[in-house]
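Protein in question quoted in full.
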Amino acid sequence: MELYTFPLSPNGKRVRILGAEIGIPFELRNLDFLKGENRAPDYLALNPTGKAPTLTDGDFALWESSAIMCYLAQSKANPLWPDDSKARADTLRWMFFCACHVDPYFTTLVVERFQKPRRQEPADEAQVAAAYRHLARFLGVLERQLAARDYVAGSFGLGDIVLGCTIELSPMLQYDLAPYPNIGAWLARLQSRPHWFKTV
């Protein structure tokens, strides 16, 4: 299998962590976005969004990191893809929670706090304030979920990987996690996992 990604991609990191956790190796194809490799016709034929990651498995190409993770997790028996249908639904719940209620606002902060300063453009503080309001609501949900458990669904799983790879961007984005001690402790647990550390 080939994984097209780039070193700073949290979405690519999700897939790499999962592959390491369940023993699926990839041939990494690091895209140079500055050179426009993500807009090359050959790459757009695999992923018409021009984003990363993209997985190829023979002649099958798949994009969207959560879809890639579900595909990989189902490809071999492993504890991260539960046999029980309710446990699988719980896993998917937290993946969708991240996609709908966490990723969009972290993406805003990436644009306003990371990308714009590097282009010497002013941040849109109204956008930043809106992202902070939404994150206070939804990270509060996660903080309460982690009050009585080490991982979002009880044991380490796909939900932890997707959420963790996004939320660990907080220091780079000047987003203060101090109001969320359970999330802070959970992130420390994730980042201490050998496979997580190796993907940095």
